[in-house]
Automatic annotation (TrEMBL):
Organism of origin: Fictibacillus halophilus
Keyword field contains Metal-binding: yes
The organism's taxonomic lineage, starting at the top: Bacteria, Bacillati, Bacillota, Bacilli, Bacillales
GO MF annotations, alphabetized: transferase activity
InterPro entries in the cross-refs: Fosfomycin_Res_Enzymes, Glyas_Bleomycin-R_OHBP_Dase, Glyas_Fos-R_dOase_dom, VOC_core
Name of this protein: Metallothiol transferase
Keyword Electron transport appears in the UniProt entry: no
Length: 131
């Protein structure tokens, strides 16, 4: 048997690489690690994201099987600042900000409609809250 050590990276298909780079850098504070012709590698709080441009890409139907969203941890202290920044960037909110699952949460979308969440809780807090 082997042990998985953690997430290595997440790859996201986008329709316009330049527009997506602006979003991930300006909204998530991503650091550019490498930029190719149709892809870019970013570091977001220690998480490796790869964006791949797919010309003429169509958004996924919300009723399809696939990734629903991904979430980044934000401290309670910085959560209000994060929400304010999302408003200032005119980001499209899908839920919140609300208190849910043992922490504060806000969900929003990137330019292609991929849902992202900022969450202040932990797995342990969430499980206490759900049980």
């Amino acid at each position: 048997m082997f042990k998985v050590q953690g997430i290595n990276h997440i790859t996201i298909r986008v329709s316009n690489l330049d527009e997506s780079i602006k979003f991930y850098v300006n909204v998530l504070g991503a650091k550019i690690v490498h930029k190719g012709n149709t892809d870019i590698y970013l570091d977001v709080g220690g998480v490796w994201l790869c964006l791949i441009e797919i010309k003429d890409a169509k958004p996924m139907d919300k009723n399809q099987v696939g990734v629903d969203h991904f979430a980044f941890t934000v401290s309670e202290e910085h959560f209000p600042k994060a929400v304010l920044m999302l408003h200032e960037q005119k980001v499209s909110f899908t839920r919140g900000p609300i208190q849910r699952g043992g922490g504060n949460t806000v969900s929003f979308t990137d330019p292609d409609g991929n849902e992202i969440e900022f969450f202040t809780g932990s797995l342990q807090k969430r499980m206490k809250n759900w049980n």
